[in-house]
Structure formats: structure tokens, C-alpha cells
Amino acid sequence: MTISVAASTRTLTAETVFDLLERVRHKTPRVHAITNAVAQSFTANVLLALGAVPSMTFAREEVAAFVAGADALLINLGTLDEARREAIPLAFDAARTAGRPVSIDPVFVNRSPVRCTYARDLIARGPDLVRLNEQELEALFPERANAEELIAAGTVLAVTGPEDRIEGRAEDFRLMNGHPLMARVTATGCAGGAVLSAFASVETDTALAAACGLSVFNIAGEIAAGRARGPGTLVPELLDALYVMSLDDIKARLRA
Ligand SMILES: Nc1ncnc2c1ncn2[C@@H]1O[C@H](COP(=O)(O)OP(=O)(O)OP(=O)(O)O)[C@@H](O)[C@H]1O
Ligand SMILES: Cc1ncsc1CCO
Ligand SMILES: [Mg+2]
């Protein structure tokens, strides 16, 4: 589904992408990620390699305090069990009170009607960003008008796949970086979502933050794929590529 409400498609420069990356590295933002059990370790390592700091507690008694002091909140629905279900509204409220950006990753809403209803209600609260793949987008918004309404109200959509699109109220982006091997490792989408949260903590233009964050993550994926022997070695190579990414790396590869 292509959603078209933005006034114009914006092109990124390598300098802009690197500037935001450097802002993340200098700020070392803490991203509180209520994420799924499969994605936790990879997501935490991606955030650390990027220069951010992860926290992942979802205990009912503690989650609000963790989020109140964090720089961004990520809510990922991949393993939506009882404890996470209880923590999510507490976390959302705490992030809103603290004025921190909220991102939602509605994993597998296309597989479970109950989850799809839950995700729709959560997204109706107006997060700053929703990151999802094409199948999840179709399940959440079978009516294109509903996605357009959400974007018009200020939520940015980041739709990933072989190509990525960032859809914002004023501008959208078309991103061509990445590598097919990234889809052969679990939770690359989830970990990429955490990168977008880190970028949203240093840039209030959420669409721009998402475009730069996803470009950095996907360029790291490309560099890693060039060195890896397969999915197993892609993971450590991707962490290393994120850790050392330079302006020259971005200049050589950015397609946005
Ligand atoms: N064929 C491809 N070519 C280039 N990049 C890709 C390709 N497939 C996925 N990617 C990139 O890999 C990352 C994961 O995207 P994908 O859409 O597969 O996420 P996802 O389905 O949410 O994954 P998961 O739920 O396993 O975390 C994104 O950064 C995306 O841009
Ligand atoms: C495989 C899997 N199952 C629930 S979450 C997850 C990670 C990819 O989203
Ligand atoms: Mg996903």
C-alpha cells in the first residue's frame, strides 16, 4: 500500500545523516525498549554499538520510573504476553508526561486479530512513530484513509522491506539502502526500530530522524553483508559496522 499525504519527497544528504549519527553518539541517549523476547539481546547490542544505551525492564512496579528518565520509548508487540500488556500503558503515560518520543512496532498484527485490535487502540493514542513491514501495514489499515488520518495527525510511518518509505505529514522519504541478508536474521526490523527511537531523541522532526536512522542501520547492513559468510556472521559484522560508521561510509553508500 502506498500512502500519499506528504507535500513532497525529500532527498537526504550524507552530511545530514552523519550529523544526526554524531548527535546520537554525543548524547548517548537511553532508549527504553519494551521489546519481544526474541529481539531483546540483539536490540540491546545494536543500541550499544550505535552509541546509545538500552534498558528493557517491563516489570509493572518499575517500568514508569525507567521510562521517566529515558530519552525515548519503544514499544514492540512481538511477544505480547500478560506482563508486557500491563507495562505498555504505564510506559506510554510516563513517556508522554516526560515529553519523550514514543515509537510502536506492531509485530505480527497480520497473524492475530486480537493483537491487531490491541495495536490499533495503542496507535490511536498518537505515537510519534510506527515502524512496520508491508504485511503489518495492510493488516492495521485495510482502509488507506485511516493511515492517512494518522499521518495527518502527526504520527510518522516507517515501512520497511526491500525498499523503505518514511511517510510524514509534511515530507516523505524513499530509502534504497539495505541488503536481502538482513531479512535472514531474526529481529533486524525490531532492532532497526530501536535505532529510529535513538535518532528521534536527538531530532524533533521525526520523519527526518527516522530516515537518517534507517539509512544508518541499512548502510551498516550493507557493509556487513559484504563481509559476512551468511546470516550468522552478519550479526557481528553489522554491530561492528555501526560502531565505526564514518561520513565516508555514508557518502559512498547512501541511496535516499
Ligand atoms: N530485500 C531487502 N533488501 C534490502 N534491505 C532489506 C531487505 N529486506 C529487509 N531489509 C532491511 O532489513 C530490515 C528489516 O526489515 P523487514 O521489513 O524485514 O523487518 P521486519 O519484517 O519487521 O523484521 P522482524 O520482524 O524480523 O524484525 C530493514 O532495515 C529493511 O530495510
Ligand atoms: C520470531 C518472532 N516471534 C515473535 S517476535 C519475533 C521476532 C521478529 O519480529
Ligand atoms: Mg517486524
UniProtKB/TrEMBL annotation:
Function: Catalyzes the phosphorylation of the hydroxyl group of 4-methyl-5-beta-hydroxyethylthiazole (THZ).
InterPro entries attached to this UniProt entry: Hyethyz_kinase, Ribokinase-like
Cofactor: Mg(2+)
SUPFAM superfamilies, per the entry: Ribokinase-like
EC number(s) from the headed UniProt entry: 2.7.1.50
Protein source organism: Roseibium salinum
Pathway membership: Cofactor biosynthesis; thiamine diphosphate biosynthesis; 4-methyl-5-(2-phosphoethyl)-thiazole from 5-(2-hydroxyethyl)-4-methylthiazole: step 1/1
Name the UniProt record assigns to this protein: Hydroxyethylthiazole kinase
Binding site for substrate: M56, A187
Catalytic activity, as annotated: 5-(2-hydroxyethyl)-4-methylthiazole + ATP = 4-methyl-5-(2-phosphooxyethyl)-thiazole + ADP + H(+)
Superkingdom field: Bacteria
Entry GO MF terms: hydroxyethylthiazole kinase activity
Residue positions binding ATP: R131, T160
UniProt keyword terms in alphabetical order: ATP-binding, Kinase, Magnesium, Metal-binding, Nucleotide-binding, Thiamine biosynthesis, Transferase
Family statement drawn from the similarity comment of this UniProt entry: Belongs to the Thz kinase family.
